[in-house]
């Protein structure tokens, strides 16, 4: 039972470890771990290099999460000789972890979750950058776009509202993460989806500990500040 989960977690970790933020910044002659918040996430890349590189890194990091969570489903669909296990309308978010069989949909759901967790760890502690990385927001968003699309949309709306009201990307990211388990519970999703949402929300908030301190101190950077400008 543990072998499929372990495989998914390892593949997810390797995908998540791809240091797109570091590579995009390096292409511009910048070591992203030495500037701004010293994070390789899209927010810091945007702050230092501008919107274009920032959005590119966000999309690439989200793609990592989507691939890490979605590849078990894609592989299973390709290998399955009959479509009975993947009937139209079957939702990965409504299943609970059950006994593992080769193409058991419950097993594929669990593998997707393991892959997402692996990607989050890989993104935050990449083996390619001496275990440094970002905070996992974009990677988590990509993973939930596959595992829990409605939750991802609700989280995106929450992020946009908070960002528009406060211009704090970090605060918007944390609020978006917290809305995931709330929306999973309100929409009657499975215990698996609720549990995963809670775990990811806790992970994202913990990765923003320094941002929380700056928010409380009133020194957190707001979106719209020119790249390289000094903090107030």
Written overview of the protein:
- The protein is an all-alpha fold and 232 residues long.
- The chain has one domain.
- Helices cover 66% and strands 0% of the residues.
- The protein is built from 10 helices and no strands.
- The radius of gyration is 18 Å and the shape is globular.
- The chain starts with a helix and ends in a 15-residue tail after the last helix.
- The relative contact order is 0.14.
- The model is unreliable at 81-102 and 227-232 (pLDDT under 50).
**Assembly category:** single chain
Biggest beta-sheet profile: none
- Indicate the percent of residues in helices: 55-70%
Shape: globular
What's the SSE pattern? HHHHHHHHHH
List keywords for this structure.
about 230 residues, mainly alpha, 10 helices, about 65% helix, disordered C terminus
In short:
The chain is an all-alpha fold and 232 residues long.
Write the SSE topology:
Blueprint: H1 2-17, H2 20-27, H3 42-49, H4 51-79, H5 105-124, H6 137-147, H7 149-166, H8 169-186, H9 191-207, H10 209-217
Helix pairs in contact: 1-4, 1-5, 2-4, 3-4, 4-5, 4-6, 5-6, 5-9, 6-7, 7-8, 8-9
